[in-house]
Amino acid sequence: MMSGVLANSVLRERARGALYVVPAGVLLLAWPLGTYLVTFALIALASREGAHLFGAFSGAASERRIALMLSVTLFGGAISGGAAIVVLSIAALSIIAGELYVLLDADHDHILERAHGLIADLTVALWLSPLLLLPALASARVGFPAPLLAWLLAVVWGADSGAYLIGRRYGRRKLAPSLSPKKSIEGLVGGVAVAAVASALVAVLLLDASPLWGIFWGALTAVAAEGGDLLESMIKRAARAENASTLIPGHGGVLDRIDSLLLALPVALIASFTLGG
User: Fold this and answer.
1) Which residue, 140, 169, 197, sits at the end of a domain?
2) d(Cα 120, Cα 130) in Å, to the nearest integer?
3) Which residues pair with 180 in a beta bridge?
4) DSSP 8-state assignment for residue 84
């Protein structure tokens, strides 16, 4: 009885959190202004949470430097016509050069602390860098909703919802007991199946693509999304944190909602070449 009440309470909290998540997702699909605004907000919030998590076990991390690297890249890439990788390289090298200048006269203890901070900043920036692909996907095929982004969100949210609901009902065998004890192999299979169906439907309706391509890329993207979820779980375990933050009721922090996207986005970019991008 108590477990049923608790489960219903969790579902209500997740539904309340969806009131924050869904409008942001809709705005993300409004290319170009909405896409850039939401991407910038995700970078700012995820940088804060990522710095907090990495700071817990690395000793230091700067949300400002992480956000600066990625934000400069986001807008620099927009101005330069998409040369985001060049802008990111310049931003990272500039921060490294600044650190080296500061360390010219530093003592040993200060060098160690700054080195830990710099490595953490660059690692978090690399982890979050797939967010820079959001505008690329949105602009690959213009329209509202941005078709390729709509496809990606349908796949990732389908995989997440399918894994949660099917795993909760039928889950028996643990997928990764040390990283995420609640995840099950049954949930993973169910999530991939739901994502494949959602992908095929959106591919046909919005992209004029073959449903077979939709099933293939949907399943592959869903597996990548699960990998992104497990990667964040590993980082949270290292930081001894249950969630990245408590910003979104029933969901945790921004990173807890976009962790799947971080590995799914590169796969989606490749998929765009066969899905009509």
Assistant:
1) 140
2) 17
3) 176
4) H
Distance from C-alpha of 159 to C-alpha of 225, rounded to nearest angstrom: 8
**Contact present, 134 and 142 (Cβ < 8 Å):** no
Q: Do 55 and 23 share a structural domain?
A: no
Find the helix or strand (DSSP H, E) in which 180 lies. Answer: strand 180-184
The owner of tokens 């600044």 is 98
Angle at 267 between CA 262 and CA 271, to 5 degrees: 140
CB-neighbour burial class of residue 72 (10 A; exposed 0-12, middle 13-18, buried 19+):
middle
Report pLDDT digits (tens) over 242-266.
999 999 887 789 999 999 999 999 9
Task: Yes or no: say if 62 and 121 are a contact pair by the CB < 8 Å rule.
Answer: yes
**Radius of gyration of the chain measured on its C-alpha atoms:** 20
Alpha carbon 186 to its chain centroid, in Å, reads 23
> In the chain, how many domains are there?
2
Q: Quick one: 181 and 251 in the same domain?
A: yes
Domain boundary pick from 87, 121, 140: 140
Render pLDDT for 42-76 as a digit per residue (tens, 0 to 9): 999 999 999 999 999 887 889 999 999 999 988 88
User: What pTM was estimated for this model as a whole?
Assistant: 0.90
Start-end of H helices in 108-253: 108-128, 133-140, 147-170, 185-207, 211-239
Cα 277 from Cα 268, distance rounded (Å): 10
- Tell me which residue of 161, 270, 157, 150 sits closest to 213, measured CA to CA: 270
- The boundaries of the domain holding residue 72 are 36-140
SS3 272: coil
Residues 249 and 159 in one domain: yes
